[in-house]
Amino acid sequence: MTREAIAEISSTLKELLADVFTLYVKTKNFHWHMSGRHFRDYHLLLDEQATQIFEMTDDIAERARKIGGYTLRSIGDIVRHQRLKDNDDGSILPREMLLTLRDDNAQLVQFLRAAHECCARHNDVATTSVIEVWIDQTERRTWFLTEVASEP
C-alpha cells in the first residue's frame, strides 16, 4: 500500500474506532440506567449488544496497526474523532434509550459503509472483509432495537 493509502485508511479506522467506543459507552450507560417493566429484557439485550460492540474495538485498532498506521491513544483522542454524540441525560426514558441506540447503530452502518468504500478503493481486502461482518452485526442490532422499541 502507498503511504497515502495507509494514511487514509488509518484515519478512517481511527474515526470508526472513536464512534465504536462512543456507542459502547452509551450502550453500557443505558444498560446501567435501564428501568421499567421490561427492565430485565432490555438490560440483558443492551449488555449483549455492548459486548459485541466492544469486541470490534481491538480488531479496528489492530487493522490500522497491521497496515502500518496508527490509532487512538487516549480518551481525548476519542473525543476529537467521534462523530456519534454522547448522551448524559439522566432522565431519558427506556424507549428513548432504545430509539437513540437504534439511530446510533443505523448511523454507524453508514460510517462502516464509508470505511468499506475507502478500504476497497485502496484494495485492502482484509479490512473490507471484516467490515462486512461488522455491517451485518450492526444492522442486526439496529433491527433488534427497532423491534423492541416498537412495543407499546
Question: What is the strand and helix layout of this fold?
Answer:
Blueprint: H1 3-32, H2 39-66, H3 75-81, H4 94-121, H5 125-149
Helix pairs in contact: 1-2, 1-3, 1-4, 2-5, 4-5
Summed up, the domain count is 1
Q: What's the N-to-C terminus distance?
A: 52 Å
The helix fraction, in percent, is: over 70%
Q: Tell me, rounded to a whole number, the average pLDDT.
A: 96
Largest sheet: none
Counting DSSP E segments of at least 2 residues, the number of strands comes to 0
Specify the CATH homologous superfamily: Ferritin, core subunit, four-helix bundle
Uncertain residue segments: none
Strand content: under 5%
Task: Please summarize what this structure is.
Helix content is 78%, strand content 0%. The N and C termini lie far apart (52 Å).
